[in-house]
Amino acid sequence: MISAADSQPAAGQSDLVRQVAEIFSPNGILSKSPNFEFRPQQQAMAVAVARALEDRAHLAVEAGTGVGKSLAYLVPAILYALAHQKKAVVSTHTINLQEQLTQKDLPMLELILPRFQFTMLKGRANYLCTRRLQKAMQQSGNLFTSSEAAELQRIYEWSRSTRDGSLSDFEVEPDPKVWAMVCSERGLCSPKICGHQSDFAKENEVCFFQRARNRILSSDVLVLNHTLFFTLLGGLEEAFESGILFRNDFVIFDEAHQVENVASKHIGLSVSSGQVRYSLHRLWNPRTEKGLLTTLLQGPAVKLVGSLLQESDSFFAKVEEACEELARAAGAKSFGGGEAAAKRRREWTELRVRRPGLVPDNVTLPLQRLREAVGDCIKLSNDKDIGLELMECNRRLTELRDEVATFLQQDAPDNVYWVERAAKTRALSLNAAPIDVAAFLRQRLFGTQTSVIMTSATLSITNETPAAGSDASAKSSGSRRQPPAARAGDLSGLNYFVRRVGAESAVALQVGTPFDYERQMKLYVVRKMPDPRADDYRDALIHWIEHFVKQTHGKAFVLFTSFKLMLEVGELMQPFFDELGLACFVQGTGTPRSLMLEKFKEDVDSVLFGTDSFWRCPTSSLPACPLRSRTIPSSRPASKPSKPGAGIPSANIPCPKRSSSSARESAASSAPKPTAASSSCSITASSPNNMARRSWRRCPSARSRWYESKG
Ligand code: SF4
């Protein structure tokens, strides 16, 4: 491991290291940018990244808020990629950060660095498959209801004018069921007969997916999200010797504190009642009498689909019943019996299942029978495209059968099994994931001959990150002040993170924040808040928001974890804002998120109420107002931790193992751009217990213990 001080360039360093140090120096090319401020922490991080790339080493960097992490890894990554004809794969957890990289940072670097190409990597299913579209149009009567056929027609018209043929180019996204029948799908894609240069492409519409693929292959920098990264990694049949997703690539994970969580979700299995129904309806939907089997007039297979739909409904109903029973037993243990105790028990949304054979298996055998019947249909079909679609359905049926069987038998070693229930739809999903993803990542990510760089503002579990102006930070900045010897090389806080992701071989670095929190911000903790489940919680919350908003005359960024509560509070507080003459923007009330943020930036006194996606706003996308405050009320999470990209980032909610750094992290997430005059306040209206309870659920390390407590 190296300490922050070691990351300064020294004589004998490579050209890349020197070049990078120079770029981030007070007089380097970045200094020509009007917003540039020399940050020694940023320079130290950039140099460490350059060195790791040159050495083909792995690096874990915890860099405090305001360091400018993205430029600190992008610059060395681009220069290294160009010099060695490699591909930099940059993975982030949130769409906000992807937007910042592709719309702000990379275009800015295009102006000052040697020529390079970048692109956003999206999943295949984001692109229209012109071949499937053509086929779906021909078979529209058999496959779609009249409203779906109208949606198909809309997709067709859009396909004639879209720029890139991807979902994000729609003004109003199409019906997912119809889109699923026309998007690019791996098992159905046949570039040899219909790729970019093929006769099919020439005769028909150009293939958007192949065009995107070519752009991806020729790009020097790819930006994608963690979910797609691990989906692609899991789908690779064999590992490359000198690359991870592509031959000759290297990987940078920003928001790396989410890597373990996302990886475990995508290495494990998840099968929902909706997925089973969707796969069966693709073959035959008894209500609409549409589906692939309609085209073949196959009575026996149709019958099997009908009975399997019923079996599947009864299977998931039994699972729910069994889970209710488990929840009742666990609740009685924690809260005792009686009505009052029952009231205190919240409806479960996730529940650990410990024993195999939770319910009798009445679906895997019918699934197998249906597979065989569909196999016969494939042999009988003389339409090649329908045959391919049926093969794809069969592949999915096999997956579903195996996943249900694995869940019921609990035969995957070292996995935890649990059931999730969607709060709104009450749809169930069966899940399994390894408790420890380190072994997989150690082999597939860190066992390759290429670099993996991981960075985040919150990777360590101790409170040892050097703060601005502290001795440790001074050391990292190369100042003449000397740090206390005990702290200088103590990066043990990162050991926990690197072990959890199997990156024990990584070099570790902590650089502090350029903010001086003690001078620049105030943190208020409202100690006497009612429990978020209590009836008077909402009124108490309104009281405190009013209290602080009055003190600062607006200028507040109010973050919620419950969407419902946010809307209620927003509505109830409207007269209060009207009286003060303040604009209050509430997420989810019609104004697009980006426009809301723009308005919030322009109107300095305004107040913004937001939920989870605003929790993850990169600091640089927020206004640099001297008195902007963040109020952080607490409530139930707005989104399920299971959903890719969902949940509260650990930057905002302390993991029990990170509890000592909670105040610091809370503060870090609220800080504006580092200017000498900046000050901000952060208000946390939550009992530490509530916060810890939520984070307990989200901390992958604590997963098994959380299930203990729930189960
Ligand atoms: S190459 Fe694949 S995505 Fe493109 S049109 Fe053909 S099947 Fe569709």
Walk me through this protein's architecture:
The protein is of the alpha/beta class and 711 residues long. The chain has four domains: 4-117 and 221-248 and 450-481 and 491-511, Rossmann fold; 125-218, no CATH class; 268-434, no CATH class; 517-703, P-loop containing nucleotide triphosphate hydrolases (Rossmann fold, 3-Layer(aba) Sandwich), CATH 3.40.50.300. The strands form three sheets. Strands 3-4-2-5-10-1-11 form a seven-stranded parallel sheet, with helices on both faces. A six-stranded parallel sheet has the order 12-17-16-13-15-14, sandwiched between helices. A four-stranded antiparallel sheet has the order 6-9-8-7, with helices on both faces. Strand 8 and strand 9 form a beta hairpin. Helix 14 runs antiparallel to helix 18 (384-409) and helix 17 runs antiparallel to helix 18. The longest helix has 37 residues, at 299-335. The model is unreliable at 1-7, 465-490, 634-681 and 685-711 (pLDDT under 50). Iron/sulfur cluster binds at residues 129-131, 184, 188-191, 194-195, 207, 209-210.
Q: What is the number of E strands?
A: 17
Radius of gyration: 27 Å
Largest β-sheet summary: 7 strands, parallel
Q: State the CATH topology of the largest domain.
A: Rossmann fold
Please identify the top-level CATH class of the largest domain.
Answer: Alpha Beta
| Cα end-to-end separation | 40 Å
Topology:
Layout: H1 15-23, H2 40-55, E1 59-63, H3 69-84, E2 87-92, H4 95-112, E3 118-120, H5 130-138, H6 140-143, H7 146-159, H8 176-180, H9 191-194, H10 199-203, H11 208-218, E4 221-225, H12 226-235, E5 249-253, H13 259-267, E6 269-272, H14 273-283, H15 299-335, H16 338-344, E7 350-352, H17 364-380, H18 384-409, E8 415-421, E9 428-434, H19 438-444, E10 452-456, H20 471-476, H21 485-488, H22 493-500, E11 507-511, H23 517-520, E12 521-525, H24 537-552, E13 556-559, H25 563-580, E14 584-586, H26 593-602, E15 607-610, H27 612-615, E16 629-633, H28 662-670, E17 680-685, H29 688-698, H30 703-710
Parallel strand pairs: 1-10, 1-11, 2-4, 2-5, 3-4, 5-10, 12-17, 13-15, 13-16, 14-15, 16-17
Antiparallel strand pairs: 6-9, 7-8, 8-9
Helix pairs in contact: 1-2, 2-3, 3-4, 5-7, 12-13, 14-15, 14-18, 15-17, 17-18, 24-25
Bound molecules: iron/sulfur cluster.
The site of iron/sulfur cluster has 13 residues, from helix 5, helix 9 and helix 11.
